[in-house]
């Protein structure tokens, strides 16, 4: 009997695995829906590397967008991560993505994405801290963006709060999480990287990691980050690999400067492209052109790192459980599994992971 078959003799693990298999594999791209944004958040990767300047403002972007949709459907793309600048500024394009692909979208929460026409759209709503911290980092303290986002997405089952935590604000985590949960939303954690010269050392996230683990203990049915996933991001370790460009799996496969990376023997997503908002050109990866990958703590990138490295997780049942629950949580966040669960499967996942220390 293979190791996989042995592990799947566990009824709960088998249930998770079968749901993922039924949902099918993902052939994904990342897409900047527009170069425009109604905020200028401190350290935002999009504007720090001038990604908005890639667009020729005089070109016919709508034609280019429609050509991209046609070409990606022909290429077999079935999943789109919609990002920069601010997707709510172009609901017409967002609707086309929603009607043609499985997808998710990240929004700053300042303007509500309507329910009608987007009924099952997974929406990650940004928050960067409690009201004062969030306002300071995202609009120089001018408006309480967190309150606006809470009001816009109250009891909206499409939306989860995508909470980007700074290294020095771990004491705010419980307050922010409680407010999101009381608002009727779940929480996925991201990890703040200040590209304007802030401290990007992973060891500085130790307090953040411990506090997130405590939130999992307190609110297991509402936290979409697992203890294993939390540990991988904050340590930058995955078995014998250390996080960086050489192991990042979401790199554009048609980008010339990625040729050596694609040949170094480390796993990567063979379908992946990260499109700029001109809808023609691609860049190195989702969140960068020239930035050091040492400063990347992006949750979506680390999801992919774990998910694509299945084989290295087959050494023990504990390690396989870390991989499988990461896969399941990604599919769950994006509405691909768990829709008709009679029990809170997120709580069950957290309970299982707490029963043993997952190996890296």
Question: Could you characterize what this model shows?
Answer:
The protein has 360 residues and is α/β, with parallel strands linked by helices. It has a single domain, classed as TIM Barrel. Helix content is 38%, strand content 11%. Helix 2 packs across helix 13 and helix 9 runs antiparallel to helix 10. It is globular and about 60 Å long. 43% of the residues are buried. The mean pLDDT is 92.
Average pLDDT over all residues = 92
Structural class: alpha/beta
Number of separate domains: 1
Share of residues in helices: 25-40%
Brief account:
By secondary structure, this protein is of the alpha/beta class. It contains 14 helices and nine strands. It has a single domain, classed as TIM Barrel.
């Amino acid at each position: 009997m293979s190791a996989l078959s042995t592990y799947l003799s566990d009824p709960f693990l088998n249930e998770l695995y079968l749901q993922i298999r039924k949902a099918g594999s993902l052939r994904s791209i990342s897409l900047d829906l527009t170069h425009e944004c109604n905020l200028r958040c401190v350290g935002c990767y999009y504007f720090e590397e001038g990604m908005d300047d890639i667009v020729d403002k005089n070109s016919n972007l709508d034609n280019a967008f429609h050509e991209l949709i046609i070409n990606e459907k022909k290429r077999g793309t079935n999943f789109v991560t919609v990002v920069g600048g601010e997707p709510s500024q172009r609901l017409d394009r967002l609707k086309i993505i929603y009607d043609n692909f499985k997808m998710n979208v990240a929004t700053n929460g300042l303007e509500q994405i309507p329910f009608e026409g987007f009924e099952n759209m997974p929406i990650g709503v940004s928050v960067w801290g409690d009201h004062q911290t969030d306002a300071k980092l995202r609009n120089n303290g001018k408006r309480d963006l967190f309150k606006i986002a809470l009001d816009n997405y109250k009891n909206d089952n499409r939306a989860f709060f995508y909470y980007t935590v700074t290294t020095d604000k771990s004491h705010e985590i419980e307050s922010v999480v409680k407010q999101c949960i009381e608002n009727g939303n779940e929480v996925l954690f991201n990890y703040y990287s200040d590209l304007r010269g802030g401290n990007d050392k992973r060891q500085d996230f130790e307090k953040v990691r411990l506090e997130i683990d405590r939130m999992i203990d307190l609110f297991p049915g509402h936290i979409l980050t697992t203890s294993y996933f939390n540990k991988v991001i904050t340590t930058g370790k995955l078995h014998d690999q250390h996080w960086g460009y050489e192991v990042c799996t979401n790199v554009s496969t048609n980008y010339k400067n990625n040729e050596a990376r694609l040949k170094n023997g480390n796993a990567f997503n063979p379908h992946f492209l990260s499109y700029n908002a001109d809808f023609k050109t691609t860049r190195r990866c989702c969140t960068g052109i020239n930035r050091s990958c040492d400063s990347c703590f992006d949750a979506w990138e680390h999801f992919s790192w774990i998910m694509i490295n299945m084989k290295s997780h087959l050494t023990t049942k504990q390690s396989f459980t870390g991989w499988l629950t990461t896969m399941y949580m990604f599919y769950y966040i994006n509405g691909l599994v768990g829709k008709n669960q009679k029990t809170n499967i997120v709580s069950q996942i957290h309970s299982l992971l707490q029963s043993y220390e997952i190996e890296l």
